[in-house]
Amino acid sequence: MELEETVRNFLQNQDKKFSSEACVQFNEKMSRHTTFKTGGIAKVYACPQTENALTSILKFAADNKIRTFVTGGGSNIVFCDEDFNGIVINTLSMNSIRITEEEKDGFILVSTQSGAMTSAFVNWCTKNSISGMQEFAGLPGSIGGAVYMNARCFNKEISNVFYSARILKKDFTIEEIYFNSNQWEYKKSPFTDREDIILEVTFRLEKNSKTEKELAEECRHFVEERRSRGHFNFPSAGSVFKNNHEFGKPSGAIIDQCGLKGLTNGGAKVADFHGNIIINTGNATSSQIAELVRTVHDKVLEKTGFSLEPEIIFIQP
């Protein structure tokens, strides 16, 4: 039985409430859902609005041995050009934010579902005079993705404000994971090498230490910094390679030193304004981006002996 038929049969056997909460579509262009603006067709694309709908879709897929991929803002991925014969699950509709505890050791605990866009969460904190997230203003992608990758912006990491996360494990049980400094590293979290799904994240922030106006001004500063560096000029995934302090320089500086700025492969290009950003100049394919990443890696290795580690995720067909 074809995947679409299997999914349609499943949906027909569910009540109307589930169907409205599951929001399943067929043959969806992934180029519409990634910041690189590339990618082929997802045979099945679901945007669950509730945790129950998300869990039911995942259980159905597991029972029928259907491949799944869970995404949020699509900001750190390169999706294959070919059809994805499985279910892509987008969590962006799961985006509620709430104050969990008004005071915890002098801080405030704020919880947000993983699908909330990072920029939306920063804005919510700003409007409620809650500080601690300003450096992440303008960061593309969802909170779930930021936590998964331990996003780092302007020398601040998500781990600096992380308190706990509620996750859906592979066996469909729920677990709360609390901060443990031994589990966090540069661009790595306890969730990076696990198949668990982050459902909700709680942050340890400060209430009323700054006014809404002061926070808004700080956020504007960080957004302008991103804009001045060209981050919003073209479709991209931000930094392509992780920095490695053992190499003595940031990856962008090493790539620049190797004379690779401006290197192109079809519509994919190493940005003129930053060696560690690859952009889609308008008609790039995911394959061209992947090939350019490999080329940059190999040329840097050849010239310096440094093996740069990609931080973007490549989704295969």
TrEMBL record:
Q: Which cofactor does it need?
A: FAD
Query: Gene for this protein?
Result: murB
Pathway(s) of this molecule: Cell wall biogenesis; peptidoglycan biosynthesis
Question: What is the protein named?
Answer: UDP-N-acetylenolpyruvoylglucosamine reductase
The protein's matches in InterPro entries, at most eight in alphabetical order, are given as: FAD-bd_PCMH (IPR016166), FAD-bd_PCMH-like_sf (IPR036318), FAD-bd_PCMH_sub1 (IPR016167), FAD-bd_PCMH_sub2 (IPR016169), MurB (IPR003170), MurB_C (IPR011601), MurB_C_sf (IPR036635), Oxid_FAD_bind_N (IPR006094)
What the protein does comes down to: Cell wall formation.
Taxonomic lineage is: Bacteria, Pseudomonadati, Spirochaetota, Spirochaetia, Spirochaetales
GO cellular component terms attached to this protein's record = cytosol
Enzyme Commission code: 1.3.1.98
